């Protein structure tokens, strides 16, 4: 049941994102005085609609998108005599650019808001963790089988304190556990979780190597894979650990801005790598192992969101939602028709062209004939449709799953 709830919630989040994308176009167009004929969420047959002022608002049966119909988005569009003065193509270049960018900006704002709320509640992922097995503090080894119990961190009087009882101190670097070298905190954690009873620890303290024995108890814990397991635990925390870090309302602003910049950088990398990952998607459809780094469709993203909720990994759910918004926002600004970025590119091509013609003493050229670009647009639409079909198919027959 939790899985279905997660899928539905993620799909709903995507629908809200798309609705806000189109609302961004509508709000800015109205602010500049352009005529907005219709604003609909979804496609297909109309569920209901109503008119407020000069704009018709409504909902359609297929909640996979939406549209904002602005009069005269290009000079090729038909407009009535009453609409001609308020047709979008009549407005200044910068105003048209703002309107066409507004959809992506709404995605960026939504992604930022999601990350900010994460920062002040559940926390943001630590991008620069210290991987050395250096102990920051010691506490109790207690059972924790739910996310709330893990985050609570409160110790009961009866809970054992293995690390402290054995003499481990903050600043100690664990060199080996049970004779097994532990070069990273993850290595130490995995070895401790597999241990039980008196276990030899070799540590480095103030330049001296010491040997201690820690009596490792077995406790029930919710592990990083979302499952409850019986693991060894000594009650020690790392310096600058991996995981989530929460911030206050003020500090969260700067941290969210910084984290957003990192996500933009990662999004750009994924876009550059996008074409070379398509063969791996095709291979996965025909039985090959699905690379978790291959592109996923809305179907795949919703399935991952469902798995995250099923395992109680709400931070992952919201992080995926923010990532989706940043990716769609950047992708939509690519200078390709029929994306908004393609329309922006044409608007600025006309502006630069007319400026160059003016320098040469010539009159401004006419608007770009979109019919001459229809073949290129059709090719891009077919390619985009093909990629969508491939990713949806792969996400059905061989989906990416949480490890």
Describe this structure in words.
It is a single chain. The protein has 403 residues and is of the alpha+beta class. The protein has 10 helices and 12 strands. It has helices at residues 2-32, 93-120, 147-152, 162-166, 185-193, 251-285, 298-310, 314-331, 340-359, 374-397; strands at residues 36-52, 55-70, 124-125, 135-138, 173-177, 180-181, 197-205, 208-216, 218-222, 228-232, 236-238, 244-245. The protein has a 4-stranded antiparallel sheet. Strands 1-2 form a two-stranded antiparallel sheet. The radius of gyration is 28 Å and the shape is elongated.
Please describe the topology of this protein.
Elements: H1 2-32, E1 36-52, E2 55-70, H2 93-120, E3 124-125, E4 135-138, H3 147-152, H4 162-166, E5 173-177, E6 180-181, H5 185-193, E7 197-205, E8 208-216, E9 218-222, E10 228-232, E11 236-238, E12 244-245, H6 251-285, H7 298-310, H8 314-331, H9 340-359, H10 374-397
Antiparallel strand pairs: 1-2, 3-12, 4-11, 5-6, 5-7, 7-8, 9-10
Helix pairs in contact: 1-2, 1-7, 1-8, 2-6, 2-8, 2-9, 6-8, 6-10, 7-8, 7-10
In round numbers, the mean pLDDT is 89
Structural class: alpha+beta
Number of strands: 12
Overall 3D geometry?
elongated
Q: What's the number of helices?
A: 10
User: Spans with pLDDT under 50 lasting ≥5 residues?
Assistant: none
Distance linking N and C termini: 20 Å
């Amino acid at each position: 049941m939790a899985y279905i709830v997660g899928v539905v919630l993620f799909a709903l989040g995507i629908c809200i994102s798309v609705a806000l994308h189109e609302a961004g176009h509508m709000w800015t167009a109205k602010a500049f005085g352009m005529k907005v004929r219709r604003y609909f969420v979804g496609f297909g047959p109309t569920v209901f609609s109503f008119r407020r002022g000069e704009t018709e608002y409504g909902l359609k049966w297929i909640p996979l998108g939406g549209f904002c119909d602005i009069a005269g988005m290009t000079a090729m569009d038909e407009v009535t005599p009453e609409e001609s003065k308020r047709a979008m193509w009549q407005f200044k270049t910068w105003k048209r650019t703002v309107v066409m960018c507004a959809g992506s900006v709404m995605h960026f704002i939504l992604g930022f808001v999601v990350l900010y709320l994460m920062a002040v509640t559940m926390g943001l992922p630590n991008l620069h963790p210290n991987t050395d097995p250096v102990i920051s503090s010691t506490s109790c080894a207690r059972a924790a089988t739910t996310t709330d119990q893990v985050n609570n961190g409160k110790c009961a009087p009866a809970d054992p304190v293995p690390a402290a009882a054995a003499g481990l101190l903050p600043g100690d670097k664990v060199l080996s556990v049970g004779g097994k070298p532990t070069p990273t905190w993850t290595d130490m954690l995995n070895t401790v979780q597999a241990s039980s009873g008196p276990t030899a620890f070799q540590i480095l303290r103030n330049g001296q190597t010491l040997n201690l024995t820690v009596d490792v108890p077995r406790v029930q814990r919710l592990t990083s894979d979302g499952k409850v397991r019986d693991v060894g635990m000594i009650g020690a925390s790392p310096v600058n650990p991996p995981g989530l870090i929460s911030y206050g309302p003020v500090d969260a602003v700067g941290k969210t801005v910084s984290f957003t910049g990192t996500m933009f950088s990662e999004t750009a990398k994924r876009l550059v790598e996008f074409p070379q990952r398509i063969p791996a998607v095709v291979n996965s459809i025909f039985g090959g192992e699905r690379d978790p780094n291959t592109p996923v469709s809305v179907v795949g993203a919703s399935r991952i969101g469902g798995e995250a909720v099923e395992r109680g990994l709400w931070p992952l759910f919201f992080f995926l939602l923010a990532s989706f918004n940043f990716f769609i926002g950047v992708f939509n600004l690519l200078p390709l028709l029929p994306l908004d970025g393609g329309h922006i590119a044409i608007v600025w091509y006309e502006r630069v062209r007319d400026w160059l013609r003016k320098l040469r003493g010539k009159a401004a050229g006419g608007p770009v004939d979109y019919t001459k670009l229809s073949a290129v647009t059709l090719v891009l639409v077919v390619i985009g449709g093909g990629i969508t079909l491939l990713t949806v198919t792969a996400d059905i027959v061989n989906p990416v799953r949480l490890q």
